[in-house]
Write a structure and sequence with these properties.
The protein contains ten helices and 27 strands. It has helices spanning 64-72, 87-96, 125-131, 133-136, 157-167, 207-213, 217-222, 243-249, 257-265, 286-295; strands spanning 29-34, 55-56, 60-61, 77-82, 106-111, 143-148, 151-153, 171-179, 187-191, 197-202, 231-242, 271-275, 280-282, 323-325, 328-334, 339-341, 344-350, 355-356, 361-367, 387-388, 393-399, 404-405, 410-411, 420-421, 426-428, 431-434, 439-440.
């Protein structure tokens, strides 16, 4: 039997250990998590919920990743910015992150709102921060850590802040070395061995530019990289700003940090790169989200939730242990409160309160589960209970919460176009998505 090896709970980057941080640094740092976008790339999972509230790994939500990274790094002042379908996100954060009355710690949501200063929706990441600056400046924070709300990674932000302070930078960006075939979808930075960023190109394609932007051998040696081939520094969408620098950088109408504010700052600011070499995945698209979830079922996954020194926090639900009635399971993650009866599951993530009836065969599929237990299906839509019925065959599918799938249903993307909008289902990037609260009648073929 293979056992997942012990590894350092916080994957190491090229920065020094955080022991030399000045006292009180984490208390003087505010974390701002960007979750305000419409999440169109994750539709239909974002049809009824904000992108950070999309379920992940069976029992978590996407927003739990950046919040847990903050808490594990000693950061206790956290705002989450959102504006679309924010109800479920509000409910999750209020139920999950509570501190005692004698602490200044908080995890709060700031939704887009009308004020005397303006009534516009957030126009981009920088505009979202600009519209909420009055809240961010209420306390004497010296540093502002701005994070993306749709990434899967584990990082000790103390290392990032340590380098930021030691280098004397005005702004520090987290970057990750990537290969040539990945640069077309990313913003690429160029820096010397001193980590000072001198150039930025959004999604470069020109071969001459690519030749100029690749990481030098000296820089790769400095970070201890032994990878072969050309590597490039991709922006991770993680930034640290000094207080006054953030104020001055937003005294304009620039809408986005990555596309506008950061490239504009190179002219007269010291912008530094924090080069991170651990696991990092942008899960803002259906294909990336699907792959990242199923990769968790690998015997030794690249990203693991089994890290005792850096746990991922979420809503404590006090559900009963899952009940397995003679099922065959291979590389499956089964969350709490499930009942699985004589089914065959292969490479699946099964979310909370999932009910899977006998004879079902499910492969390469994410089952998100249910928001509540259903004891009686009488009078329910289609006369079906929540869950997956008998003798179903399902593969390469994402089944959102509270779906009702009747007996004998067959679901597969085989033979379908890469993108389809149908009455009862969607296909995105070659993956079938059954939306939240969907009803699929018995014997239906997709």
């Amino acid at each position: 039997m293979q056992v997942e090896p012990q590894r350092d709970s916080l994957q190491k980057s090229s920065a020094a250990v955080p022991g030399a941080l000045p006292p009180g640094t984490m208390q003087r740092t505010l974390a701002i998590i960007m979750g305000g976008g419409a999440g169109t790339r994750l539709f239909p999972l974002t049809k009824d919920r904000a992108k950070p509230a999309v379920p992940l790994g069976g029992k978590y939500r996407i927003v739990d990743i950046p919040i847990s990274n903050c808490l594990n790094s000693g950061l206790r002042s956290i705002y989450v910015l959102t504006q679309f379908n924010s109800m479920s996100l509000h409910r999750h954060i209020q139920a999950s992150y509570k501190f005692d009355n004698f602490s200044r710690s908080f995890v709060d949501i700031l939704a887009a709102q009308q004020t005397p200063a303006g009534s516009q929706w957030y126009q981009g990441t920088a505009d979202a921060v600009r519209q909420n600056m009055r809240y961010f400046l209420e306390r004497p924070y010296d540093f502002y850590l701005i994070l993306s709300g749709d990434q899967l990674y584990r990082m000790d932000f103390r290392e990032l802040l340590h380098q930021h302070i030691r280098s004397g930078a005005d702004i520090t960006l987290a970057t990750k070395p990537v290969h040539r075939d990945e640069v077309s979808e990313l913003g690429i930075m160029q820096s010397g061995v001193d980590r000072r960023i001198t150039r930025f190109v959004e999604k470069p394609a020109d071969e001459m530019v690519l030749g100029e932007m690749r990481m030098s051998r000296e820089l790769l040696d400095a970070i201890g990289s032994i990878e072969e081939g050309d590597l490039y520094q991709a922006s991770m969408g993680i930034y640290v700003f000094n207080r006054q620098v953030l104020i001055e950088c937003l005294e304009n109408d620039l809408a986005d940090f990555g596309k506008d504010v950061i490239p504009n700052a190179f002219k007269d600011r010291h912008v530094s790169a924090f080069i991170y070499q651990g696991y990092w995945e942008d899960i803002g698209t259906i294909r990336a989200f699907y792959k990242a979830n199923l990769d968790l079922t690998d015997i030794v996954p690249e990203y693991s939730f089994f890290e005792p020194d850096a746990p991922i926090y979420t809503h404590p639900r006090f559900l009963p242990g899952s009940k397995i009635n003679g099922a065959t399971l291979r590389q499956a993650i089964i969350a709490d409160g499930c009942i699985i009866s004589d089914a065959h599951l292969e490479r699946c993530v099964v979310g909370i309160r999932s009910i899977i009836q006998s004879g079902a065969t499910i492969r390469d599929t994410i089952v998100m589960g249910a928001d509540y237990f259903q004891l009686d299906s009488a009078g329910e839509p289609g006369g079906l209970p929540i869950g997956i019925g008998r003798n179903c065959v399902i593969e390469r599918t994402i089944i959102d919460k509270n779906a009702r799938i009747g007996d004998g249903v067959v679901i597969s993307p085989e033979g379908k176009p890469a993108n389809v909008d149908a009455e009862k289902y969607f296909v995105r990037d070659g993956i079938v998505v059954i939306p939240k609260n969907a009803v699929i009648p018995a014997g239906f073929w997709i």
